[in-house]
Model the fold of this input.
Amino acid sequence: MANKKIVLGITGGIAAYKAAELVRLLQKNNIDVQVVMTQAACQFITPVTMQALSGKPVFIDMWDASIANGMPHIELSRQVDAIVIAPASADFLAKIVHGGADDLLSTLCLARDCPLLVAPAMNKQMWENPATQRNIAQLQADGISILGPDSGEQACGEIGLGRMLEAQDLCDLVYAHLSPKPLNGQRILITAGPTLEMIDPVRAITNLSSGKMGYAIAQAAFEMGAEVTLVSGATALKPPLGVNNISAISAENMYQTVMQNVANQNIFIGVAAVADYSPATKHSQKIKKSEQTLSIALNKNKDILADVASLPNAPFCVGFAAESENLLEYAESKRKAKKLPLIVANLASDAMGSDENQVTLLDKNGAHPLANAPKIAVARGILQHIAKCISSP
Ligand code: C5P
Done:
C-alpha cells in the first residue's frame, strides 16, 4: 500500500490513552498521522504526548493562525485519505449526526471530502441508550464506518458493550479500510493451524504449526475486500476482525467443516498443518503407564486440499508445502499430485512458529520467490499473486 495519511481525531474519554498506542501502530504501517484533539480530550491525554508520538504539531483550536489560509477545517481534511475519530464520545457522535460544527474537529468532519471512521467509547448504559443507538443508525446511513465498540470491563467498573477497540484492532481496521481491493466480491475459504488427534482424554498427536501464517492470510484477504471464512485448528490466536471463524480441532473435523463450507467459494487456501495420521482407537479413559512399550495404531487421514481440488467446479486451490529439504522439488511434485494451480513453498525451519517467513510461489509459469518478511507482508504478497492469477488465468 502506498503511503497514506489520516487525521486522527481524539475526543474526551478515558480511552484517549489508547490513541497514543494507535498513533505508534499506524506509523509502523506507513500511515502518516495528523492529530486533532477536542478541548475535552486534553483533560485525558496531553497534546504534548500526541505531538511527540506523531512528530507533528497537534491542532485543537479553530482559530489556530498557524494553519495555511486561516482555514484549518478545509486545509487539514483536504490532505488526507480518511478521518478517524478514536475515541469517539457519545456527545461527539450526537454532534456530528446533526452536522454540528462548534470546534475544530467537528468542523473538520462536516467539511471533509474523505471517508470518516469512528470508534465509539462510552459506558454501556450510554451505548445502549436509544438516543445513542438512533445516532449510530443515522451515522451508518450517512456512510460513516463504525469501528466496534468492544465488550468487556469498563473504566467505571461495569461490564458490557461500549469499550473502545484495542489499538491493534483499530490499526488493522483502518489499514483494511485504506487498502486497495483487488479481491472485492471473492469468497475465500482458508484452513489454518495444527490439528489435534486425541489418543485418550488427555493426550494427543499434533505438530508445531502456530497458525500465524494462515491467520495472516485471512487478515490480508479481508483487507483486500474478500469475504473470508477461516477454519481454525488448535491455535490460541485471536481471529482477525471481519473474518468468519469456525473452529475445527481434529483432521476429520476440519475435513467435514471445509466440505460443508466449500460450495460457492472462489478460492480455497489450505494453510493448515493437518496431521497425516490419527489414532485408530480413541480411548475414552486415560491409558495407564503399565506396559514397558506402547504401540498406537494410526489411520491415514483424508487429504482435504486434494479432495477440494478434485471437486467438480473446484475453487482456485492453493496449497502450502513445508519441507525440511529439497524444498522446490518436493513442493512442485506436491502441486502436481494434488492438481493445484499454485503452491507456496517454505522451509519448515523458517515457517513453524516464527513471526517472519520466506516463501517461493510455484505455478505453471515457474518459481516466484518473495522476500523474507513479517508473515502479514508475505500474506499480502501471496494474495496479490492469487488476485493476478484469477484475473488472467
Ligand atoms: O501435509 P502436506 O505436506 O501434504 O500438505 C500440503 C498441503 O496440503 C497443505 O496446504 C495442507 O494444508 C494440505 N493438506 C490438507 N489435508 C491433509 C494434508 C495436507 O489439506 N490431510
